[in-house]
Amino acid sequence: MGVLSRLLRGLVRGADRMSPFTSKRGSRTHNKGRGARPCGLNLSSRKFIAIRAMIPEFVVPPLDGFKLRPYVSYRAPKGTEPPLTAQSLFSEVVAPQIKEDFEKGCFNKDQLEKYGFEPTQEGKLFKLYPKNYVR
After folding, report:
1. E strands in the chain
2. Burial (Cβ within 10 Å: 0-12, 13-18, ≥19) of residue 98
3. Gap between the Cα atoms of 13 and 109, Å rounded
4. Residues 36-62, buried b or exposed e (16+ Cβ, 10 A)?
5. What torsion do the CA atoms of 60, 61, 62, 65 make, to the nearest 10 degrees?
6. Per residue in 55-92, pLDDT tens?
7. Helix or strand or coil: residue 40?
8. Which of 53, 28, 27 is nearest to 38 (CA)?
9. In whole angstroms, what is the distance from residue 84 CA to residue 127 CA?
10. What was the pLDDT predicted at 56?
C-alpha cells in the first residue's frame, strides 16, 4: 500500500472514532439515554441499589377547579408586555424608593447599598458597572 492510501485510511478511521457515539452505533442492548441522573448506585457486583434521597420528588399543588390547560398553542397571540430591561427594572423598583426617601429628607448618596447598589464589582461573574452597563 502506498503512503497516500494509508494516510487516507487513517483519516477515515480517525473520523469514524471521532463521530458521536449514539445508540445506533452500539449493540442492541446499548441505550445511551438522555442525560438523566441515576437514582442510585451501581455496585461492583453489578447490583443496583436505589437510594430514596436521589429519586426526584415532584410537588404539585392541587389543581381542582383550575381552568387553564397544560398546552399553549403556537397560534396564541404574543404577550403585550415589553421585555424587561435594566432601565425599566430600575424605574419600577428602585426609583420609587429613592424618590420617597428624597421627599422625606433621609436620602444620602453615600448609602446607596440600601437600594441594591454595590460600589465594587470585585468577585462578580458579570461586572455590571460601568464597563458592561446597558445604555
Report:
1. 40-42, 48-50
2. middle
3. 67
4. eeeeeeeeeeeeeeeeeeeeeeeeeee
5. -110
6. 888 888 888 898 887 788 889 888 888 888 888 888 88
7. strand
8. 53
9. 19
10. 84
Q: Which three cell numbers stand for residue 32?
A: 445511551
* 124/135 Cα distance (integer angstroms): 20
Lookup result for grid cell 426617601: 101
Helix (H, G, I), strand (E, B) or coil at 45: coil
Altogether, the residues listed in the chain come to a count of 135
Name the grid cell of 26: 452500539
Largest CA distance in the chain: 91
Using CA atoms, how far apart are residues 84 and 134, in angstroms rounded to an integer? 13
Please, what sign has the CA dihedral across residues 74, 78, 81, 87? Answer: positive
CB atoms inside a 10 Å sphere around CB 95: 13
Question: Which three three-digit cell numbers place residue 102?
Answer: 428624597
Cα 72 to Cα 62, 69, 77, 120: the distances in Å are 20, 8, 10, 43
